Amino acid sequence: MPEKLFPIVDISYLSNNFEDSAQWKDNIQFQNDLKIKQLAQELRAGFETWGFLYIKGHNIPGNLVNNVFGQSKTFFDRPYDHKSKYPRGEGIGEGWLGSENEVFDPSLPRDMKEAFDFRPNTEIPDKLSKDMPNLVGGMTELFDHCTELSLKFLRLLAVALDIDTEKYAASHSNMGRCEKNGTSLRSLYYPAIKDTVITDKDRRCREHTDYGTITLLFQDEVGGLEVLSPTGEFVKAVPIPGSIVINAGDMLKDWSHGQYKATIHRVVTSTDQNKCTIARQSMAFFCHPNFDIDIGENEEKINVFDHISKRFNETIIPTN
């Protein structure tokens, strides 16, 4: 299995000089900054070639990320009767998914993972906050950081395409307002695999593309994520401490008329039984446009709410 790295982009200049993306609207300095334009072209090249890249220098506190990983592990380690009090429903929603509750291909073995989908100020996290306030507080804070970082990227992508800087950001203005936008933070847990023979058909997460605009992914050190390369082979997305993996989803692919790739990816199980005994964690921030946005033109037009609901309804089996 190749271990070729896709692009690594240092966004320290952006983080340190343009901290608040809300101030960028009609900001001539931002639009004409040569280093910003260079950074935008690096992002464009990564998304056009791979659909995936690493970013560093993002200024999201490492201790916050580690705290959410730790609090999530505490939640996932609890018994079924506890986790099932917070069930994820069908369609766009939030809550806990067990190992049998997300299916990408019914003809193959189920994914070896659990997940907790989080959207702020909704019934499930409000209920959970009475039991695990540190988990809900940490996920809320991380959600806010990821929202701000996503808005920065959306403006950079507009600069890269030489279009209105606000075109993409304005279409994501309701992130965090769950009645108008489906953006979510998903905590993922891949349990240690013991007393099970691993076959070539087994996956911790099966092949898929993401549904929205962009995804920000935080990995632990265990690894397992693989990305379909431009040459048609899966390559390992090796964990890099302090970095975030960012990838384009279905909506961005359609929005950019295919310039940006929504790349197939998966999480594999090692055929080395010793490695399978190590649990894996990750967190994915799925950035989605507002529900009322239509992408495309004429008969090719796709409504965001309809698209995301359809994708979830095809794959989510609600927790009983």
From TrEMBL:
Listed InterPro entries: DIOX_N, IPNS-like_FE2OG_OXY, IPNS-like_sf, Iron_ascorbate_oxido_reductase, Oxoglu/Fe-dep_dioxygenase_dom
GO molecular function, one term: metal ion binding
Keyword Nucleotide-binding carried by entry: no
Signal peptide: none
Keywords: Iron, Metal-binding, Oxidoreductase
The keyword Oxidoreductase is annotated on this UniProt entry: yes
The Fe2OG dioxygenase domain, residue ranges: 181-289
Family note: Belongs to the iron/ascorbate-dependent oxidoreductase family.
The protein's name in its UniProt record: Fe2OG dioxygenase domain-containing protein
Species for this entry: Clytia hemisphaerica
